[in-house]
Amino acid sequence: MIPIAVVGIDCRFPGAPDKDAFWRLMMDAVVTDTEVPSQRWDVDNFYRPDGAPGSMNTRRGHFIDNVDAFDNDFFGIAPIEAAALDPQQRLLLQSSWRALEDAGIDPRSLAGTPTGVFVGVMSSDWTSIRLLDFAGVSPFLGTGSGYFMTANRVSYHLGLSGPSVAIDSACSSSLTAIHQGCAALRSGEADTVIAAGVNLILTPALSIFYTQAGLSAPDGRCKPFRRDADGIGRGEGVAAVVLRRLDDALADRQPIYAVVKSSVTNHDGRSNGVTAPNRRSQVALMRRALSLAEVDVEQIAFVEAHGTGTVLGDMIEARALGDVHETRSGEPCLLGSVKGNIGHTEGSAGIAAFIKTCLALQLRVLPPTVIGDGPNPGLRLDESGLKLAGAQQPLPGNSVLGAVSSFGLGGGNAHAIVESAPAAGSPTPSRRGVVTVSAPSAQALRRNAASMGRALRTVDVDRVGAWCRSTNIVKRSHRHRVVLDGDREALVDGLEQVAAGARPDLVSAGRPHRLPAAVGLLFSGQGTQFAGMTRPLYHANPVYREAMHTVCAVLRPHLGPDPLAAILGHDAELDHTSLAQPALFAVSYALGKTLLQSGIRVNFGIGHSLGEISAACLAGVLTVEDAARLVVVRGRLMGSLPPNGAMTAIDLSVARAEQLVADVPGCVIAAVNGPRALTISGTAEAVGRLQAVVHQHGGKARGVAVSHAFHSPLMAPIVTDFRDELDWLEPRPAEFPLFSTVLGRQIDGSEMTADYWAQQICAPVQFHDAVRAAVNAVGADYLAEAGPKSGLLTLARQAGLPSSTRSLVLCSGPDSDGNELLGVAATLLRDGYSPDLTPLYGEPSGPLQRLPAYVFDDTNRFWFDGPIAYSPERARVGQVETAATTAPTVERADTEHDRTEGEVLALIASVGNYPVAELVRSKRLADDLGYDSLLQVRLLDRLRKEYPQLRHVAIAEFLPRIHNVGDLVDFVIRRSDKTA
Fold first, then answer.
1. What average pLDDT does range 386-403 have in this prediction?
2. pTM for the whole thing?
3. N or C: which end of the chain has fewer CB within 10 A?
C-alpha cells in the first residue's frame, strides 16, 4: 500500500487543551474524570445508584472545558449563526486549522485544492435539543445541526474542494475516518486530508442508554483489561490529523509524526447481538492489516487497543489479539488503551488512540496504561503473547511498528498499522531569521505575537533560522502582520513589544498580495567599488556565494588577477578600471541573480553606465559569458588610456553646470543623475579647477573614485578598437523592460548592439531621464540596487518617484553585516508579499519546524440560549457584554446622510447580532462579518421593509455591488437621494 504520512496533529481532550498536554497527561497516568458540569445538565435529576429505568448510574465522566467558546470572528461567522452552530462544528473548525498549521501548511493556501475532510462523529446532542424546538428552527439552526455539516463546515470555511464526508460507525467512527482519508490519498482523490473526530456530551441520553444496557461504570472510569473492569466511563474530545502521501510530505519537507502502513475496516456480521463484538471478525481485520502492510506480527511492538473496560468487550478483544499474537517467539506485544485516562470518547475515541500511537512512535516511548489493581487474570494475556503496559516502555530501534484498534457499537471495526517516521534531516544551523505572525485583527495579532515570542525563547539558537522560515510559510496569510528580522533575542524582544501594543513600525495591515512584488532594479556604475565589497554577504549567503562563483569562473579566463580575491580581499588595485569594472559587474550580477531567484517581478531595469552590462545580462539580452567578455574588453581598453582623468559629483542644475563647463575647458557633463545631481568628467587639472569654482559659489563637489575620465572625449581613442572587438555580439530581446541611460528611454534589448556599447563610452549617462521614463511607463512597488552600495536609490527619488515606492537595500556598503537580504525578506513579507525565501536566507530550507498553534479568542461564548458573551474588541479592557438582540440605538445625527448611515449600521448589527460599534465601513460583509447568502437575503428583506425605495431591488442587483459596510451605506443613501 502507498504509505501515508501523519504530518499534523491537534487535539483537545479532558484535562488536555493541546497535544503536548495530552502527552504529559498520558505519561503521568492521569485520570481525568470529574462530576458532570452544571452547564450540561442537573445530574441530580438523572442519577440513581441502582440505575433505575430512565436514570444513569454515575455522576461522573470526562469533559473538556470551555466548549461554548468560539472565535467566530476568525472564521467570518456572524454571531447569529455562531449561536446556532453545534459546538462540535465550532471545535472542528478550530482544531482543523491548528492541525494544518502543525503540519507546516498555511490553511488559506489550500483554498481551491482537492483537500479532503473526513470526520468521525457518533452523536449530536445539540441537534436533538435544538431541532425539537420547532418554533425556534431557523436556517442557521438547520445548517448548524446534523452530522452532515461537521465535515462540510470545515471544507466550506477553508475553501476545500476534495471529498467531504461525515462518518458514523459509532465508537470506531474517527479511526474509520482516518482509514477513508488514507484511501482517498491512495486513490488520488485528494492530495491532503484532514481526518477528525469529535464528541460532546450535552445531554444524559447516551449515559442513560449505557446504564440500561449494563455498560456504564458507576465511577465514570474505563478500566481497560483490568481486574476491576466494570464498564464504560464516557468522555469528550475533538481532534484532527493531517495526512499526506509519504512521498509528497517528504518532497514538501513537512515534519512527520508517523506513517500509516495499512488501514482496514470490516463489520462483525451476525454475532450474538448487535452490540456484541465478534472475535472472528476482529482477527480477520488485524490479519488483513498485517498482510497489506507486508509486516510480520513479530514486528508489532504494541497495540493501542479499543479497550473500553467492559467485561465482555475486553475478553473478546484479548482473545482476538491472542489469536494473532500467540505465535510470537520474542518479546510480548505491549497492550494499552488511552480510555483509562480520558474515558471512552466515542466519536473521537479512535483518533485519540491513533494520536497516542503517533506520538509514542515519534517520541519512542509508550505511555503507561492505568492498571489499578493489575490486569484481569482471566484474560490470560501472558499466554497470548501480550503484556499490559502498566509503566512507561521505551521503543528502541530504527523503525518501530504499532497498531491501533477501534470497534464500533453495532459492529463497525477499524484497525491501522503505523510505523515510526523516516529520519528527518537537521536544518542548516542559522542564528538569524525573519519571523512572521499574522492574524485577522490587531488584537488577535498581539495575542499570537505573545504566544510566538514565548515559544521562540525556547528554540535552540542554531535553529532560529529554520524556525523563522516555517513562520514565513505557515503564519503569513492574514491581513494584520508583524514581521521582523534579527537573532533570537531581537526577535523575542520585538514580538513582546508588539504583544504589548508597541512598535507599530513592525506591524502592517492589508490583504496579502496575489502577485509577486514588482521591483525596479538599478545596477551600480563604476565609483562604487571598495576593497572587500560584499565580503560579509558572501560568507553569510550561500546562494549569493554560488552566483558569485559562477560569474567569477566566467571572468577568470579573461583576467590576469583572480576576480574573487580582488572583490573580497584588500586589493588596492581595485580602483583601476581594468579590474574595477569586472569586479562591479560580478557583484551586481550575483546580487541581481539572488534577488530574481526569490520570485520578485522585475518591472524595469536601469544600469548606470557600466551597470547597463549587468542589467542586460540579468534581462537575458546577453549571456553571462557574453557580458563577461564585454566588460573585460571595456575595462581593459579604458584602462589602457593615460590615467590623467578625473570625475566629480556636483549639486547644480544642468543649465548652471553647462555654463561652468563652458568656462572650464577640458570638462564635460558625464552624467545627469537628478535635477541637481550631476557628474563632471575631464582632465584632472580641469576637474580640479571646476571643483574650486563650485565651492566658491557655495556648491558641493565630491570626487569620484575612478582612474579615468569616463563619458568624456578622453575616452574617444579607444572607441574604434572597442567597437571592432565586439563583432561577435548578438543581443536578444529583453525579458523585462530595460530603460537606457544612453538614450533616456525604454529599449527592447535588441538595440544593445556593438554600436550601442561603443556609443555608451563617451555619451553622458542620462540616468534621471531613464528613471523618469520608467516611472511614467511602468512604475514599481520597490526599488532595489544591485551593487555594493545604495547610492542610486537616493538619486532615483529625485526623478518624481511616488512616495509609495519603497527602497530595498541589498548591500549597504563598507558597513554591511551581510544580513540586508533578511531585511528585504522582512519588508516584502510585512507588506503582504510571499517571496521564495531560500535565496534571501541563502540556504536550503530544510525540514519545516513545529510552531505554536494559532491562539483563538475565547471571549465569545455561545450556548443553548444564544450568545451569552460577545466581546471581540472589548476584551482588551476586561469587559464582557451581552450581544445586541435588537437594533442598537443611534445618537442624533447632524445630517440626513449621517442619520441614514446610523440607521443602516444599526440594521446590519441587528440582522447579524453584532455590536454596532464594530461595523466600520471597511468591514467586508461576507469575509469579515459572515453575511453569506442566507444573511444577505435576510438583510435585503429588512432593508426593503425599512426603506420603501428599495422594495424593487432584486438580489441579483444587490449582491454584485455590495462588498463591505460602506458599500451598503452608500447604496442606501444613493437610492434615498434619488427618491427624495
1. 94
2. 0.90
3. C
